[in-house]
Amino acid sequence: MYKNEILIRNFGPIDEARIDLNDKFQIFIGAQASGKSTICRVVYFCQKIRDYTLDFLMSSEQFTENHKNEYFNNYLKKLTKQFMGCFGTTKHMQQFEIHYCFQKKSIRIFLNEDGYVRFFLDTELRNEIYTLISEAADMFLNKFNHEVSTIMDNITAMGVMKRHLNEVLSSLFGNKSEIIYVPAGRSLLATMSEQLQDVSVDEMDLTMQEFIRLIRTTKSKFGNKIPEMVEVYTKTVKGQINNHALDQAYDLIKRILKADYISESDGEKIYFDESHWVKLMYSSSGQQEALWILMLAFSIILEKRNVFFIIEEPEAHLFPIAQKEMVSLISLMSNVTGSKVIITTHSPYILTSINILLYSEKVEGSHSKNEKTVIPRSLRVSYDTFAAYKVGKFGKSVESLLDSESHMIYTDYIDEVSAITNSELDKLMDMEMEDDL
Description:
49% helix; alpha/beta; 6-stranded mixed β-sheet; 16 strands; 14 helices
């Protein structure tokens, strides 16, 4: 297997971190401002370079309005613009390096002496991008002008070209997955759900912009409760669906949301039963924070999409039992679709829930399928494709939290807060006993 990884040095709060992109499920835990979100954004941006390259190649004005000698530099400018959209201006930053390695190729992102971000593509990758740029330029400057006679022909030709380039880029980057980033602070979208279509995203950071666009296109799928939605889907789309996984997912969603979600013509609603509902903007904070993780996970399972799913703080505003169910849903989605997941968390309940799924794979994985199980096979997490990291203060250290013997996250770290509070409680009780003497 190729070494697919991202190495981060001196970027934001991160001193050094190495992220293995071959791992199927990864979790990052650490105090606020330690750098968890920075790591996730770097992973997201690097994985999205494939898509930004496709956007550039499909932009006709890049070729019709510029000289061919400017094409590649304009491509690098496109990447720079997207980087700044994700991380802001760079002149105030320290010298940093990001190495994105894939398919024996690499992209180096760094800050030059003048404080500007720069991209360096290795020779093989640069030559392949040059070839794709030439191919796109030829299509826009020559073939479209001479061979396309009608608007419909143009649309068809563009669709064929986009599918071709997408396949080539997916192979080039060794990544066919759809990239999804669910940022923290997403409940704001629920409180503004009535105005979401009219919200201008231009002033937001790139991850939130792209998340809002994803929600705008996804919510139309949920015009009915989930069972009716699945029924409509099976009548209109060819191919088999995973009924068992969908039943499991819907059961978990009902346990977390305590309701059904429907996007109707007069707004988004949370239905508690057939006749009682509340507008999404007036629902509980836990429902608002969890909603789009739940709906996206379900649609991914239904449509059998392969995604790279990055989720910040899936536990936000959820009761501990609901946090456990959220972990189960995320693991289910990953297992049945082959998707990869990265999550950040502050919650010991998330870690404990993952430990149960890891331990189940160790203990139950070797047992007969006919035996009664504690944890369904579809929910278990494999230690071999799992990683858990503690991000230290100000990102000065990123260390593994996995115990190779137990195949779980170190319980000492999970219990660290409890140990502190128990110690303080013991001291207070000792003081109380001394006062009574």
